[in-house]
Amino acid sequence: GENVEQHPSTLSVQEGDSAVIKCTYSDSASNYFPWYKQELGKRPQLIIDIRSNVGEKKDQRIAVTLNKTAKHFSLHITETQPEDSAVYFCAASPVNNDMRFGAGTRLTVKP
Amino acid sequence: DVKVTQSSRYLVKRTGEKVFLECVQDMDHENMFWYRQDPGLGLRLIYFSYDVKMKEKGDIPEGYSVSREKKERFSLILESASTNQTSMYLCATTRDPYEQYFGPGTRLTVT
């Protein structure tokens, strides 16, 4: 089955700086790569996703890049704000919907 | 909006008890999932279901079983609760093999 590794486990940045979280996956059949944000005490919510036929996707201050050859994908947050502080999870899913999540990155944005 | 509800937000059970966690969704989604969330381990898939009366094991099914008698309801059963099953349990649902919608979670403590 799919195995997803996520780094770093914790990340602390100054407000306004950029944050990058990286994930690798093992199953070359995976074709869908979502990122979820989980604020304290709340459920995970999708913030951005990318499919395997696309190399990069951007939505305002967040972007995701995918390198299928190397089997890794990354989340980029620019101009970070305190409200970006949360735990972020990457995931990978092959066509049979057997989604697997990374261990999570706790992002802290210091004002 | 997709609504996914879980029967309890907090639950305290004793070792050896049989525990039922229920998840209900109102969007007629085919696929439903149960995860447990532990610090540093992310979201780990316990069981999932593609359709009524169908179930598939995830990565950590030992000590758990599931039931899906109706499309909207997916139950997780701890046959004989143990202290190492103390965790946050999250239910999720999806129509497509893509975005998952999460319930609010049930924090289970086994004493």
Describe the protein in words.
- The complex is a heterodimer of chains A (111) and B (111).
- Chain A has 111 residues and is mainly beta.
- Helix content of chain A is 0%, strand content 55%.
- By secondary structure, chain B is mostly beta strands.
- The mean pLDDT of chain B is 93.
- At the A-B interface, strand 5 and strand 10 of A face strand 4 and strand 5 of B.
Descriptors:
heterodimer; A: 111 residues; mainly beta; six-stranded mixed sheet; five-stranded antiparallel sheet; 55% strand; globular; B: 111 residues; seven-stranded mixed sheet; four-stranded antiparallel sheet
Q: What's the arrangement of secondary structure elements?
A:
The complex is a heterodimer of chains A (111) and B (111).
Chain A: E1 4-7, E2 10-14, E3 19-25, E4 32-38, E5 45-51, E6 56-59, E7 62-67, E8 72-77, E9 86-92, E10 100-101, E11 105-110
Parallel strand pairs in A: 2-11
Antiparallel strand pairs in A: 1-3, 3-8, 4-5, 4-9, 6-7, 7-8, 9-10, 9-11
Chain B: E1 4-6, E2 10-13, E3 19-25, E4 31-38, E5 42-49, E6 56-57, E7 64-70, E8 73-78, E9 87-94, E10 101-102, E11 106-110
Parallel strand pairs in B: 2-11
Antiparallel strand pairs in B: 1-3, 3-8, 4-5, 4-9, 5-6, 7-8, 9-10, 9-11
